[in-house]
Structures
1.
Amino acid sequence: MRRALAILPVGLLALVLVAFMVGLRRDPSILPSMLIGKPLPAFALAPLRPDEPGFASADLTGEPVMLNVFASWCGPCKEEHPVLLQLKSQGVKIVGLDWKEDAMAGARWLAANGDPYVRAGNDASGRTGIDLGVSGVPETFILDRQGRVRYRQVGAITPEVWSQTIAPLMARLRAES
Amino acid sequence: MAAEVGQFALILALVLAVVQSGATLWGAGRGEPVLMALGRAAAVLQGGFVILAFGCLAVSYVACDFSVALVAEHSNSQQPLAYRFAATWGSHEGSMLLWVLILGIYGAAVALFGGTLRETLQARVLGVQGLIGVAFLGFLIFTSNPFLRLSPVPLEGTELNPLLQDPGLVSHPPLLYLGYVGFSVAFAFAVAALLEGRVDAAWARWVRPWVLAAWVPLTCGITLGSLWAYYELGWGGWWFWDPVENASLMPWLLGTALLHSSLVLERRGALVSWTILLAILTFSLSLVGTFLVRSGILTSVHAFAVDPKRGIYILGIIAVTTGAALGLYAWRAPSLRTGALFAPLSREGGITLNNLFLVALTATVFLGTFSPVFIELVGSDKISVGPPYYARTFAPLAIPLLALVVFGPMLNWKRDTVATVLRRVRIPAAMAAVAVLIGLITVGWKGVVSALALGLAAWLVAGAAAIPARRWWAGRANLRRAIRTTPPAVFGLSLAHAGLGLLLLGITGVSAWHSDKVLTMRPGDSTAFAGRTITLDSVGLADGPNYQARQARFEITGRGGPYTLVAERRAYASNQTTEAAIHVTPLGNLYISGGDEQDGGIVVRLWDHPLIVWIWIGGFVMAFGGLVSLCDRRLRLGVAARAPRPALVPAPAE
């Protein structure tokens, strides 16, 4: 009995070490999305830019698109912004969802920092964000031609994330019929 | 130049650590005094070379030598001198060097001042310490070399993360490491005892000051960390159950258990193998904390630049050190002498119960912290638990433990009876009842839970005061003498337990009665909040040494007023920080944090934090109690050595 009790700690340690070993191989910032492979939940967003309409989930079909969730109050969004502007100049179609703030604040922020979006909508109440399962900004969804979510990026899109993950995926989606 | 000297000093320290462990372990096994003396000399020299290496890095920082890659990454010439120096341990590499520095100093202290120990025991302790030194020096030199040069040399460096440029955070890591590494000495003693196959009261007399010397700075470090998070992060919270905070809390909880069980071992010779196990596990949890912060296994707000390769190395260190120690434990512990018997109702019994609670609390925090790892292992879900988990698991375990704390010191060793114990706690119990009544009168029936918590806090403080009071009452015939002859340990015990009560008072106040408000204010606007009128007077710009600040000036009238508060938002070159304006009083804090600009005004967050300051006062009082107790041990050890020369007294942590 005493011996069994004395062996117990070293046994538990072995289990914990195995768990840590496995744990090290994964990336803690990957959050799987329940939406992968499914169409976007239906939504219709209020306009963000004063003289333009907002957009609805149905508008996002036809060709692969990046749906970028942002807010003027979010620090990492500023970091991501130049990358998005550069992608716009390369002809990537990005739609913007301004999350949890007044449309005025979002529009002013875009006017000051540059506007990378082909269409932009405002989700002041955060309701659409909840439907999308947004956990924080920035977050980006990649949609295929049928408007299904194919990938979810949590956190800023850095040049590396773009070139290594998103660009190949978008090229593949464009090739799909 | 300094960088190369430092590099060579580190390499020499590694070689010396190998010599230290080899010579002492071999020498102790063969009973060779010459080899053991060689090991001792190596330990002292290793300490010297690590100090030299650390000094070299510090000199590079202070002199802004940007040819050293680490300096260029974490310091710039605009930074004030104090923060240039503090940047020495502001990076992963630098903080590992600090870790190795403390380890080296402790090893040298055991070698220099451990003359009263049995020679083979001292040698084996140094041997185990040397092995830990080899592991960490190897880690430093091979995976995280702080002395790498940079070519071409940049003209200016990137500054230290502005959040870290703060007096609280500058002293936070050294204090934590004094604690973590201090437990390595207890670990070394435990493994040495297993190797010797002998645990006696002399062993416990030696371990206890080391555990205390680790526990005191760790308590201070955690308290400071919480204080820093409160005033610097601008969220108005004091504890977030973040993985990195938990990493320091786990060794603290287990270290507290060790502190109590080693007392039983010292006084009564009981709980022998349990104390050994706790000593091993406490240091292992310190290692796990290091692993957690640096490996990227979990995401955290304050983790260092993470690198899974370093994670593998530290995991290897844990596997080897803890694995070998626990393996040795499995082999040797059953043959250790079982301790003296005691009745369930006795001071020993009380401390055993305390230990069970503390171990359960540690397990709770451990499972909560690593839940994403464990849950993903079983299923594929990614779940991390937050404050609701801890509210449901930690609190129900902590509350009975807090209620039992008062009984411990009132129990006699060996055996006691229920009636006498209850009689001894009648005055604290009466005071707790009064506190509950006062609470109920002020907040009414709806606040019955907070009133009970206030009662528990009063119970703890009154119970702590009863410890010396009982002693003095017994010696009241000659009160002056009774007070003068009270050993510091009694005061230390009383202070530490009272600190716990103050901590609980603060937690109760802020959790039950805090309130907050968010609004946009333009200069001239005023708002009513928590019995005060707060007016935004002006918003202006000001220059700091290496930042530009936007200062929002508030006039407060009403409760405690009138006074002026200035909330800052500082823009550093790389980042910005929020310096909240806080008006501190014993009854509560007013906390104002100025956020983004919006609609011609600024977003202002207001918090009212009743009694919150007692959280940190409680933490520091606990640590002070430990320090007082440490003074007592010193004297007693001197007596036990029969040659009470002060120089022979073990030097506790600096």
Note: The mean pLDDT of chain A is 84.
2.
Amino acid sequence: MRRILNHPSLAIGLTATALFALIGLLSLVWTPYPIEQIVISRRFLGPSPEHWLGTDNLGRDMASLLMAGTYTSFLVAALAVAIGAGIGVPLGLAAAAWGGAVEWLVLRLSDFVFAFPAIVVAILITALFGPGAINAVVAIGVFNIPVFARVARGGALSVATLDFVAAGRLAGLGNLAIAFRHLLPNIMSLLIVQGTIQLSLGILSEAGLSYVGYGTQPPETSLGLMLRDAQGVFLIHPWLTLVPGLCIVCIVIALNIAGDGLRDAIDPRLRQGQTNVVA
Amino acid sequence: MSLLEVENLSVRFGDTAAVAGVSFALERGERFGIIGESGSGKTLTALAITGLLPEGAVVDGAITLDGTALPQDERAIAKLRGKRIGMVFQEPMSALNPLMRVGEQIDEAIVLNSLAQATLNVNTLLTEVGLEPVHGQRFPHQLSGGQRQRVMIAMALAGQPDILIADEPTSALDLVTQRKVLDLIAQICERRHMALLFISHDLKAVAALCTRVAVMHKGRLVETGPTTQVFGKPQQSYTQKLVAASQFVARRPDRPSLGDTLLEVDGVTREYRQGGLFRRAKALRAVDKISFSLASGECLALVGPSGCGKTTLAKIIVGLDKSTSGTVRLGGTAYRGTDMPKALRRDLSLVFQDPFGSFDPRLTIAASLAEPLRLEGGLERLMVRERLVEAITAVGLDAAMLDRYPHEFSGGQRQRLAIARALVTRPKLVVLDEPVSALDVSVRGEVLALLTGLQAEFGLSYLIISHDLDMVRAMADRVMVMEAGKIVETGTPEQIFAEPKHRLTQESVAARLPEIG
């Protein structure tokens, strides 16, 4: 806990991220107005005590939409990270622990996925299986797999040269046991940092997919979808674009600050005031 | 007036004092040594003198050179370094620029420190440090460790300094080269009438080179005086301990007689493929048709310079690597390395060189020690705990330490724990890969005594891999000398030291530094 407080950027980033996540979660149980409630007579209202952030072109409450949209963005990005880490990390560990043909296969597979521009294939997937939040999750998740596989393999390779891994092999541990008992716990910090970065990239990708119409579909909402709805009236009502846009920017900045802070806090080489490094 | 005077120097990092109240003086042409274990603050003292302390260090006290205080200004002190003070570092590979020919690097040092009357050139400096002009055309990676250290010395000499600071200049080198570099430093200091500040943990190297020494412990100077006096009649208890620890006590003669053959190595060869996909270069033979046997209860030492293949051989024996051809037999069962039958693994274990890398930082000591016990199978949890306690008390540590994590232990304690892990399956053969070379001098003796005691207690056989001839002499029943993958000489330590036959053995024995005191 003290380590977190020693890194102001980490504290700020984590607090801001938690705040956005809480706002999103709150939308599950309570929003000022139901988000699908369309009241044309009340459209394009400015911020007021009844509607904190005003209303959009269909008279929906912007504050409610923003809460629900934040939730969707976080959910899609988090599930995508879970898919990426859940498949990518075991692949990377397998590549490091077995080596040889397994490593070759994993690396070529991730090269293959890397070779396609992410957004294009995401559009392809949603175009094939129809748009929707689930397909956005799958599309973004697939692109997280090689990222996690590479990070896990790189970290595991440097851990695998240490003597305690050899000691484990001497004790008769197989590759699987080595990977999960010795390699995984020692690269956990790397994976957490990468996870934070992928989370912010996931939120951006979700916004991008929704914006082009392949992500979340109405009556559900997401930050990208709000941008898309507002772009037609941007010159007359710029407020409607600014609110979700700034919200995306803030979430991504918060996550990036938290990721950088986590890396500083976890990496002992970057820690300040270590005397034994020089002595 | 002394050339260099350090008075009441202290270096602090936050609240911890790394160096406290250190005072000494260095006369012109004097060779002064600072001895201390890792973390004693000896390197920080040297860095304070050159103004190269890392950020965050707070310096207090006075350092005067020829009566004038060291400047605080970075530009002024940078001029001073090189012209007045030359420095040689521990690891020459990382101190040299890998992309520049060494001649150019020496030339750069000359240009930067050029005095009006200077008539230096690269070739004279190269000749002075015992290299030839042709070496100047090479890149650092094309030189050997000893040659690189000579280049570093040449660069330090380029400014014709009054003081040469050498920080562990030989600890990355093998025995023969170490001796040559030490002799070279002594010669140059003599010839140029240059003062030397020599920093080392190796008492013998300091004794061979310096006329006056200071012993440092936990940031303080414990004892200062002429070399013969400090090492011959140490006054402080810490110095006494250090001097005693540097002399290995020979093993007790009342050893049980040797039993049957335990380990047999038969024509083991390990080749590494080199070269690209299409043009296959000749394979590199790290181990070349080695055969020997080891009786139960014996302590066999394998010595040789770094890169001679001794660690590869050890890896094959313990089953971490596989031989290209040839077999190993342990108690009659043959294997080639990684294909070792599981039932055999518990009869043999390995103690690693580096006590800091050999424990998983995320596991408790108990979890790490219990790992090899899964080879036995069917042990109850209570039984496991019992065995762990037995092993940890056998190495002289407390059973309460089992629930702690590796970072809470010192290097010596970790090496004891590593030995405990090696013993937990009650093996017959323990392979020790440089068991004490990563440890501080003062704990080396303890760990070796522990190993000797355990051998008698449990009837163990040892295969020791080392380049430290003094340690081998104290421990081993039989010595094998290895060079370039082949065993070139075998014999008892007495034979090997009294009348070495092979060229390498002769050189190594001749390069040993004289005993201190």
Note: Chain A has ten helices and no strands.
